[in-house]
Design a protein that fits this description.
The longest helix has 26 residues, at 60-85. Among the domains are: 4-85, Winged helix-like DNA-binding domain superfamily/Winged helix DNA-binding domain (Arc Repressor Mutant, subunit A); 165-255, D-Maltodextrin-Binding Protein, domain 2. α1 crosses α2 (19-26) and α2 crosses α3. It is built from 10 helices and 11 strands. By secondary structure, the chain is an alpha/beta fold. Residues 1-59 form the HTH lysR-type domain. InterPro entries: LysR-type_TF_proteobact-type, LysR_HTH_N, LysR_subst-bd, WH-like_DNA-bd_sf, WH_DNA-bd_sf. Belongs to the LysR transcriptional regulatory family. Keywords: DNA-binding, Transcription, Transcription regulation.
Length: 298
């Protein structure tokens, strides 16, 4: 009889194309992956992978098994979700996925309050710019900024929270230096993923430099602006509460999108998820003025 764990390893190698990729994904050693694949091949009496210099390629038998393995995976996830959905116990793990900036600059104090209110819930904060897969239960709840409601996956359960706005910010000392003439031009501080200065951010009273500073993530961008490297578009919940920053004069306030709280299927019925969803919705209402950019830095 085929072991579902062996099938998981088979799928990880098939999708990653190598033992290394599968081991990283499953957080196990290379030898464990090789042993599991060998065990599966022994049970099936067939070789499922061909080892090539470029990686692992499915054999003809492996191709036939792949479709069945994916059906097994779907059934397993459905079973886990249904069982989790019937769990009305407050004690246990709750995994929340959200962008790093939102975790560190907006909600961390709220998370602390939630943990004080529910000491038996083990809160796992998954702060990453990558979108997690709620269907495979990489997380129980996801907070995302959505730009177009129609892009939300139909199979997810969504709860609309609040709009989030942004503006262009600069360090107060750098603005003073620019106004005095000591800094004639100010650099843009951009993330690699931005692909340039957003059109809406260009209209302001600062003379920009043609040589931007580029960073890899939002946190580095915030620190760079705070340090006086230049100006950058930031969320108002970041810029308006930082005493070292000020909005660039003449700049526009821009809606970045809308926060949504997302869950999947039966997961939303668990008591832990319901408690967290209601709590966060209330906290977003409390943050409404900040998110709307109405706490203007002066």
């Amino acid at each position: 009889m085929t072991n579902w764990d062996d099938v998981r390893y088979f799928l990880a190698v098939a999708r990653g194309g190598s033992v290394r990729a599968a081991a990283d994904r499953l957080k196990v050693t290379h030898s464990t992956v090789i042993r599991r694949i060998g065990h599966l091949e022994e049970l099936l009496g067939a070789q499922v992978f061909q080892k090539l210099p470029s990686g692992y390629r499915l054999t003809e038998a492996g191709e036939e098994i792949l479709a069945l393995a994916e059906l097994m995976e779907g059934a397993s996830h459905q079973l886990e979700t249904r069982v989790f959905g019937r769990d009305q116990n407050v004690r246990g793990l709750l995994r929340v996925a959200l962008p790093p900036t939102v975790a560190t600059h907006l909600l961390m104090h709220d998370f602390a309050e939630f943990c004080r209110l529910h000491p038996d819930i083990e809160l796992q904060i998954l702060s990453s710019s990558e979108l997690v897969n709620l269907t495979t239960r990489q997380a129980d709840v996801a907070l995302r900024v959505v730009y177009d409601r129609d892009t939300l996956p139909a199979h997810l359960i969504g709860r609309q929270l609040r709009d989030v706005h942004g503006a262009v910010y600069i360090a107060r000392d750098l603005l003073a230096a620019h106004r005095s003439g000591r800094e004639t031009k100010v650099r843009w501080v951009l993330k690699l993923e931005d692909g340039g200065v957003p059109e809406w951010a260009r209209e302001n009273e600062i003379t920009p430099s043609d040589a931007p500073v580029t960073v890899t993530d939002s946190e580095a961008q915030i620190i760079a602006v705070r340090a006086g490297l230049g100006m950058a578009p930031l969320s108002c919940f970041v810029g308006d509460v930082d005493p070292s920053l000020i909005r660039v004069p003449g700049g526009a306030l821009r809606k970045h999108g809308t926060f949504w709280l997302l869950t999947h299927g039966e997961t939303r019925k668990t008591k832990r998820v319901r408690l967290f969803s209601d709590f966060i919705a209330q906290r977003f209402d409390t943050h409404a003025t900040l998110l709307a950019g109405l706490l203007v830095s002066g």
